[in-house]
Amino acid sequence: MTGDPLFDYPLRRGERLDPPPVLGELRADRPVCPVRLWDGSEAWLVTRHADVRAVLADPRVSADPRSPGYPFLSAGRAAAPDGHGSFNHLDPPEHGRFRRMLSGEFTVERIARLRPVVQRTVDRAIDAMVSAGNRAELVRALALPVPSFVICELLGVPYADHEFFETRTAARMDLTRAPELVRAANAEIMGYLEQLVAEKRRRPGDDLISRLITQHGDSGEASPGEIVDMVRLLLVNGYETTANMIALGVLVLLRNPDEAAVLRDDPDPEAVERLVEELLRHQTIVHIAPTRAVLAELTVGGTVLRPGDGVITSLSSANRDATVFDRPDALDCGRDARRHLSFGHGVHHCLGHTLARLELHAVFGTLFRRLPALRLAVPYEEVRFKEDAGLYGVHRLDVTW
Ligand code: HEM
């Protein structure tokens, strides 16, 4: 790398529902900027929408943590790279082998079949909130259980075990967690899934894990270890992401009550879809990543990146780029926000985006209609944000109605 690092990364936020303000200055003046990581190493931070797209679509960059110069965002990540061994950290052509085995499970038609179960799960969660009184902690009552239950249904993981994998996943996401604790959390999830996959091999059911085994495992196309890796990736990516998005989305709407008005009386499905895209853009939960390593020289935004350089693409910055979104810092639920990059771009574009959108449409199409007087039960200043996690969100959200 060349050039003195200008900032320590991750950057700190000012207003907690907005990305660090310095990102705006970087987009204007230094769109590809050297930053310093926790271990003193350096990486390029890419902040403009067009440059982020270009990097994520470029075969000269690698998503594989074994590539020289791959930037780790914490000691825990370096010790137990997120998804080490899973296909989100493989490059083509190996990456495509896994993606093809799963793509049939995530088509629009297949995911649409989950609509009744998703809506039922949302309705039940809200019913339980209402019957318990007029106050709830929304992360535990709605944001977490809805996607967690739905991914369990899809995969064939017993929901009764949700406390187990939720606590381990949270430990993996925490950037401040000691490397040995991250490694231990990873090992526990892997041990649990190895047992579950072995059980499904003996007694297959009507679920994604069983289909992976019968369609791709039995033929030898995927080894037992590869099946466990795929399931692990789907389980840990399959609920915590959406859960954070639900909680942050509700919070930002409570801070912008006029924008939530469209949801209060019988919302039109297209208005809900537009609103969800705007929430995804405005509250980019994959807020300090994705990260890549350069394999062969390329020029991004006028800066030459060399083999062995680390690159961090800032989705939260790209989503606030004024050349793509008018008044980018404003939450405007009527705008067409579909060019946001919250689900990434290129070969690693989120496999589960259709499922995430289905869940978000059900939650936002129902919650404010059922509870039109929804509001924070504590001062906003007391809400604790996940500043030190790879996925942005809130630890808890106390609401009343
Ligand atoms: C990849 C965001 C929900 C499964 C990604 C990436 C992003 C992302 C940004 C690309 C990472 C990279 O380029 O390195 C989100 C957001 C979600 C969400 C914001 C919710 C609001 C889900 C769900 C599932 C899922 C529900 C599973 C059912 C995956 C998988 C990948 C991925 C398997 C890796 C794809 C690959 O490498 O080919 N997601 N995700 N995601 N996501 Fe999601």
From TrEMBL:
CDD domains: CYP105-like. GO terms for molecular function: heme binding; iron ion binding; monooxygenase activity; oxidoreductase activity, acting on paired donors, with incorporation or reduction of molecular oxygen. The keyword tRNA-binding does not apply. This is Cytochrome P450. Keywords: Heme, Iron, Metal-binding, Monooxygenase, Oxidoreductase. Belongs to the cytochrome P450 family. InterPro entries: Cyt_P450, Cyt_P450_B, Cyt_P450_CS, Cyt_P450_sf. Pfam families: p450. PROSITE patterns: CYTOCHROME_P450. It comes from the Bacteria. The lineage of its organism: Bacteria, Bacillati, Actinomycetota, Actinomycetes, Kitasatosporales.
